[in-house]
Amino acid sequence: MTFFQAARSVRRRGYNFRTLLVVGTGKRAQTLAARVREHGHWGLRIVGFVSDGHRFDPARAGAPMLGEIADLPRLLTDPASPVTASACSPTNTPRWP
Fold it and tell me: CB within 10 Å: which end of the chain, N or C, has fewer?
């Protein structure tokens, strides 16, 4: 077994993961979240979403809403800040405060 196969196996079991904060709540964000959940071997665990103004159903998303775009500086200043993935559509991408 190679190192990469071993790492994949460990991540699939829920160890050695990075946390992911999804910026966006629309269809792209939901698709991204579904892909991350389907591919546990990527080693990513979604901790929450940041609203870009779209409707949001936390039960369907499988993670809570942690704030809005204006809250990003606060959410990302923690030393244990999650990796961030933007799933906003290019035409709806909000500006930073």
Answer: N
